[in-house]
Design goal:
single chain, Methylamine Dehydrogenase, Chain H, 4-stranded antiparallel sheet
Length: 332
């Protein structure tokens, strides 16, 4: 517990967005009234916005580097782009044939990539979302996850249903390397991108990106790991299975903390953009706010179904939640 600095007792409240601006959402269906704010020690966490997609499960979401656009996707096979300034939305065409499993923005760019169960990866531009920029359609199995390198922004990688990791050059849109050990999710270490974390079955592997050598193996989950996320500095990694979330240290290679799901079921997680010792965990219909410094957690009612993905923007301090209830919500 003492590995994390405690949250500031007098930290500034995160004020909720009081005005109801849902009337400018255009054709987007309004969500039910927002959930009341939850607070502890001056810290406030409240729903500040919501979009309802067309009655289909949302599986993934991600903010652009500047925090101005939130992308989400899922079973309706298109990407919804939510402008954080105007609160208006745009969509890409339904070029994917099956569920989109992942959407990720290229760092410091309006470009984004999607992975799909239809065995393809597609590149888009949020500035011109009406058409696909590039497509890789010849993969032999469903693509489950992808991520861009934080510094070498012409490099991205994805993992598939066959436990294979492929590194891709964005300029040539061709594979440069193939590895093993990733199925559920792949995530580059933030900022420097020295390591790649990959989840497969009940194990999380850490690979050296340059040498492709597996440097660490995180074991200890009794159930399949379905979600991973790095802290902002790339020093810690959180791994989520239905019954447990674990925090791993890259320095020691050990699990330093864990939280059981109790009567809930964990599905996703993200470190809070403003408070590094606060992990936001997505459950069946609620969010768990876990203060790792004090090992205390708070449950917030959030959705009507599984919270499949979480994203955050350090620029705006916003957290986004995507759910199988067809909605995407903003929290601050």
């Amino acid at each position: 517990m003492d590995r994390f600095d405690p949250l500031d007792e007098n930290m500034e409240s995160l004020l909720s967005h009081e005005s109801d601006s849902r009337d400018i959402y255009g054709t987007i269906k309004q969500c039910p009234p927002e959930h009341p704010k939850e607070s502890a020690k001056g810290f406030t966490f409240a729903e500040v916005g919501c979009i309802q997609t067309r009655n289909s499960e949302v599986t993934c979401c991600h903010f652009s580097s500047d925090g101005k656009v939130l992308a989400s996707a899922g079973h309706d096979k298109k990407v919804v782009l939510w402008n954080m300034d105007t609160l208006k939305t745009e969509s890409t065409p339904e070029e994917h044939k099956l569920v989109i499993t992942e959407v990720r923005f290229r760092p410091n760019s309006s470009q984004l990539a999607t992975a799909s169960f239809d065995k393809s990866v597609r590149l888009w531009d949020a500035a011109n979302p009406g058409y696909c920029v590039k497509a890789y359609n010849s993969h032999p199995s469903p693509v489950m996850s992808l991520d861009f390198h934080p510094k070498k922004t012409d490099l991205f990688c994805f993992c598939d249903n066959d436990n294979e990791i492929r590194y891709f050059n964005l300029n040539t849109f061709s594979c440069t390397r193939i590895s093993k050990g990733g199925m559920a999710q792949v995530r580059f270490q933030p900022r420097i991108g020295h390591f790649l974390a990959a989840a497969s079955d009940k194990v999380v592997s850490i690979f050296d990106v340059e040498t492709d050598r597996q440097t660490l193996t995180f074991q200890g989950h009794s159930e399949i790991v379905n979600y991973i996320c790095w802290d902002a500095n790339g020093e810690y990694l959180a791994s989520v299975s239905h019954n447990l979330v674990k925090i791993w240290s890259l320095v020691t290679g050990e699990c330093i903390q864990e939280l059981g799901s109790g009567g809930n079921q964990f599905h996703s997680c993200v470190f809070h953009p403003n408070y590094s010792t606060l992990l936001v965990i997505g459950g069946i219909s609620s969010l768990e706010l876990w203060n790792m410094a004090e090992n205390k957690s708070m449950t917030i009612s959030a959705h009507e179904n599984i919270i499949s993905a979480l994203a955050q923007s350090p620029v705006t301090g916003m957290v986004a939640s995507a759910s199988h209830d067809s909605s995407v919500k903003l929290w601050k």
